[in-house]
Design a protein that fits this description.
single chain, alpha+beta, Arc Repressor Mutant, subunit A, three-stranded antiparallel beta sheet, 67% helix
Length: 123
């Protein structure tokens, strides 16, 4: 690779790493929001995230679901499946609903501030 091509490549790699970090920071909010719409199976959560271009590995989501359950934000129930083993469906708890409401407020404040800064950047 030539000098400029190498710089472009390195910048793309750096941007992708930063993109991954930004997405990780909002996955919890997205999961709580998705589950607030109704009980969800973990595979359905993964599909919903991927559908919206929030590509997340199973190895990221499952520990997060466990942590959210341990924090009292989610609960789960087992349901028999016609096509295999029982499935674990997640639902929001009362504490989870309050947390989601507060996180949404903080998210809206943050995105408003960031959008103002981005609009006012110098050309």
């Amino acid at each position: 690779m030539q000098g400029n091509e190498k710089n472009v490549y390195l910048c793309r790699m750096d941007v992708e790493k930063k993109n991954i970090q930004m997405r990780k920071g909002v996955i919890e909010l997205c999961i709580l929001s998705l589950v607030s719409q109704g009980d969800m199976y973990s595979t359905d959560l993964l599909y919903a995230l991927k559908k919206e271009k929030l590509l997340v590995a199973e190895g990221t989501v499952y520990p997060l679901l466990t942590r959210l359950k341990n924090e009292g934000l989610l609960k789960y129930r087992w349901e028999e499946s016609r096509s295999g083993p029982p499935r674990k469906y997640y639902a929001l708890t009362g504490k989870g609903s309050i947390t989601l409401e507060q996180l949404e407020k903080k998210w809206n404040e943050l995105t408003k501030s960031v959008n103002i800064i981005l609009k006012n950047k110098r050309s």
